[in-house]
Amino acid sequence: MASATILVTNDDGIASPGLHALAEAMAGLGTVWVVAPDRERTAVGHALTLHKPLRLTRVRARWYAVNGTPTDCVNLAVKHLLPRSPALLVSGVNRGVNLGDDVTYSGTVSAALEGTILGLPSIAVSQEGQERFRFPVAAVYARVVARAVLQEGLPGETLLNVNVPNLPRRRIKGLRVTRLSRRRFENPIIEKVDPHGRQYFWIAGTRVTWVRQRDSDYAALRAGYVSVTPLHLDMTYEEVLEGLRAWSVFRPDRGVSGAQRGKRGTRP
Ligand code: MN
């Protein structure tokens, strides 16, 4: 296992102490390559840069900064830079949780998602907190999960989303396998007026309620556990397929194609 190549990335940028703690923690599991955005790219989601040149800047041996998104970093690393396909991709440790719906905005999770698309076992790691963090504690748990993934493997098209409470290590009770929660915001749009008298907006708001509490990532964190949520690349909602096919518009004899066939005698 010591010969495994491990790719480490994040969305907080190459200078983030969370990235450094993570890279350090992974060093014992294999040969670590770090390819990360050259600045903070939080909440860029799964964006890919298509309309400007990307540059790889070598910081030191096996450490590279990219003037792009986390998804750009993963692609450049896997498809161009690394000498072989990594055995594992780990993204983080992010400044702040990525719970529930957060995973759809998160650059941290999107980097792991991109790894999954490229066929790599991938893990996203985030830590609870606003200003002060305990990244070395999060990195310990990242390593625990990473080692398990290297040993057990992951099912196809699956990534793990890990969230670590902001607690001293002795107060963390262990790990829990969870599902995504859902949150509701109160006053999510803040309206203000600028010095020129024009209105502007902040997307802000405070999280007030969380639903889907049972077995949820949020509940695990609140109870002092590290949350580990398996996410699946295939977002198709299997249970709805049949119901949707029953809509008249989707029935071969009733939909647009049927209407056009009736009118013109040809398929669209
Ligand atoms: Mn971030």
The ordered H/E elements are: EHEEEHEHEHEEEEEEHEHH
- How big a fraction of the residues is strand? 25-35%
> What fraction, in percent, of the residue positions are helical?
25-40%
**Number of extended strands:** 13
Walk me through the structure.
The chain is α/β, with parallel strands linked by helices. It contains 7 helices and 13 strands. The chain has a 9-stranded mixed sheet with strand order 3-4-2-1-5-6-7-13-8, sandwiched between helices. The longest helix is centred in the middle third of the chain and has 18 residues, at 135-152. It is globular. Bound molecules: manganese (II) ion. Manganese (II) ion is lined by residues 11-12, 42, 94-95, 107-108.
Summarize the structure.
It contains 7 helices and 13 strands.
Annotation keywords:
two-stranded antiparallel ribbon; globular; 13 strands; alpha/beta; 268 residues; single chain
List the helices and strands and how they pair.
Blueprint: E1 5-9, H1 17-26, E2 31-37, E3 56-60, E4 63-66, H2 70-81, E5 88-95, H3 107-117, E6 122-127, H4 135-152, E7 158-164, E8 174-177, E9 182-186, E10 189-193, E11 199-203, E12 206-211, H5 217-222, E13 225-232, H6 238-245, H7 256-264
Parallel strand pairs: 1-2, 1-5, 2-4, 5-6, 6-7, 8-13
Antiparallel strand pairs: 3-4, 7-13, 9-12, 10-11
Helix pairs in contact: 1-4, 2-3
